[in-house]
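I have a small job for you when you get a moment. Can you supply me with one protein entry, sequence and fold together? It will help me judge whether the discrete encoding reads sensibly. Write everything out right here, beneath this request:
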Amino acid sequence: MGKSWKNPAKAANAAKKGAAISKLAKEISVAAKLGGGDPDANSRLRLAINAARAESVPKDTIERAIKKGTGQLDDGKAIEEVMYEGYGPHQVGVLVECQTDNRARTAPDIRFIFKKHEGQMGEQGSVAWMFDRVGLVEGMAPNSDCDPEEEAIEAGANEVEASEDEQNLFSFYTDPEDLDSVQKALAERGWEIKTCELSYRAKNKTENLNDEQKNEVYEFLDALDDNEDTSRIHSTI
């Protein structure tokens, strides 16, 4: 006999997994579009494929995403990268990078999330001035004895920060034009590269928020991240 009810938690988990796979596939398509379909010659594509495999994305889904990006598979839905910016709760500056095949769907969705959380989506340039364009390389240290500051100097990075969430994970910041050379230098020195991409870094952090205000901002950022077209979020918090 079939069930007449559904487990809400199970359905929610399945929906989240589906959304995650969709985002990973979009990143693969965009990476292939920008840098070609050979992961050995395209570091962004290689990292995107590795991330997809880590999440058990089916092989055929990965292959289709690559073909879509390189133009070998035309389903009439070209994916493009767009960015929206604005202020979240308590005037926290936010940049939202999206990968979408339909701007007419994505823009209203993102605007609704801003409004729902008492924020306001702004015009192009209204918040971007609060951020620097940087290269970002995230990597796992080869051993617990290495000096990240020294590694950053040797690799040619400008700054390095330790992750607050994961031990031995560090973020190296570079000039955009030095991104590839720093990534290669760290890999040669034994670092396990997790991320290599152009990014944005807040010039000044929003301070003087109490715990309740911070939680309101985090809920807003989580809502943005849950949107199916969101790929990356940068904020001043």
Q: What stands out?
A: The first strand starts at residue 80 and ends at 87. The two ends are 52 Å apart (CA to CA).
